[in-house]
Amino acid sequence: MHFERNVVFWLAVLVVLIGLLWLLSPILLPFVLGMAIAYLLDPLNRRLARRGMSRTLASFLILASFALAFALLLLLITPPLLRQLSGFIANAPAYAQRLQNLASDENYPWLKHLVGDNLSGADKSVSDVMSQAMGYLTGLLASLWSKGQALISIFSLMIITPVVAFYLGCDWDRIVASVDHLIPLHQRDTVRKLAREIDASISAYVHGQSGVCLILGSYYAVGLSLAGLSFGFLIGVVCGLISFIPYVGSLTALLVSLCVAVAQFFPDWSRILIVAGVVLVGQFMEGNVLSPKLVGHSVGLHPVWLMFALFAFGYLFGFVGLLLAVPLAAAAGVLIRFAIRRYLESPLYTGDGAA
What total of structural domains would you count in the chain? Predict the structure, then answer.
């Protein structure tokens, strides 16, 4: 009976939290983003506080430095990114036409078998296909925009987010202590243990994967640009950013860069192989060096579970859902493993006390 009451209580808490998230998702973006920034910068804030600096001053200095570095980064990469994005959109139909011509060329029957008859035998023209693709992309962005309606006011986002991050950074320890005080006394030790596991899982993944994305994005952007690939900087930065989703960034980098390389360089196979080599070296680095060193194997987030969480929460809650997907997936993973351990220790599994 005691176990059933615990289950009912925590299920009720979960239902209430999901309901509040659903109802308030249109206005939550600056607050969730501010909380994420405060959480990411809390280890540095805590380190400065241990050296005698007040948390208020530490939060201000860290946020000011972070904002300055972010602004400088935007000033450096935004102009070339916008130029290459404009050029890529303008040249995409020509690239698609080039790939279509190669797939239908009788001198390269193996290429037709490789890509299939979709490019050459479809009733729709290339322009129709490109229109559909752009329509899908526009619809996806519109969905994220409409479900995260705080994006409507970029100015309010730029103002509210740092204010939220600053105050949370100042009061982080006090907030954690207040939440801890609300936990039922007989469950406090268990909840604290689970919270530490969740925090370790989120921290290891977010901090580690952020480093992986930054290194891979820089490597792909520089490597593909040096290889002479058109829009290599754009492809590299985008693929580095979406490397936050396991395997998706690597596969996107390989597919997009090879398609652009074939359309640009064919039949110069040496240039195409150089582009492929750049991407494959990046994938090797990610799988064998970066992820094991920066993320580790004990995070507890299975790639399939993480991909499902990102797509599901992004679909349900828009951009807010994307920000919450990783911590919620980590929390769910820890709670599921805890429930399985309890089940394996329970009489329901062991049969102890059964008639």
Answer: 1
